[in-house]
Amino acid sequence: MDRSEAMRILTMVSEGKISPEQGVDLIEEIVGGYDSGTKHGSKIKVEVYNKLRGKKEVNMTIPAKLAKWGIKLLGSKADKIQIDGKPLDIDLEALVEEALTTPDPVEIETDEHSIVIKTVG
């Protein structure tokens, strides 16, 4: 982590854009942290397949700690996430934790989408 990255994080904390805890989490993500909390992989892969269109709409892989930090950053806005125009009635933080502690993928099926969340090395 260079000085400019640290200053950006500290600025976000001082401006109230993120909490001090979120700042620490972000710094740990950048410098590698001291406890990854992952057992079966260090990255989370999310794939969203649109059944109606017959194509993959999302295919992303992100560091596990960044996924955890992002869920915490979403906070109360997480209940506004929608799939097929309906609120996603699921605890995203628990979903990410489950994906990190099991080698099996977490799968969500709707009428229009198939979502797979899994850890990768």
Question: How does the SSE layout of this entry go?
Answer:
Layout: H1 3-14, H2 20-31, E1 43-50, E2 55-63, H3 64-74, E3 82-83, E4 86-87, H4 92-101, E5 106-109, E6 113-120
Antiparallel strand pairs: 1-2, 1-6, 3-4, 5-6
Account of the 3D structure:
With 121 residues, the protein is an alpha+beta fold. It is 37% helix and 27% strand. Helix 2 runs antiparallel to helix 3 and helix 3 packs antiparallel against helix 4. It has two domains: 35 residues; 84 residues, no CATH class. It starts with a helix and ends with a strand. The strands form two sheets. Strands 2-1-6-5 form a four-stranded antiparallel sheet. Strands 3-4 form a two-stranded antiparallel sheet. About 7% of the residues have low confidence. The longest helix has 12 residues.
Supply database-style keywords.
about 120 residues, alpha+beta, two-stranded antiparallel ribbon, single chain
Structural class: alpha+beta
- Radius of gyration using CA atoms only: 16 Å
Major sheet characteristics: 4 strands, antiparallel
Count of folded domains: 2
> DSSP helix count?
4
Sum this structure up briefly:
By secondary structure, this protein is of the alpha+beta class. It has four helices and six strands; from the N terminus they run ααββαββαββ.
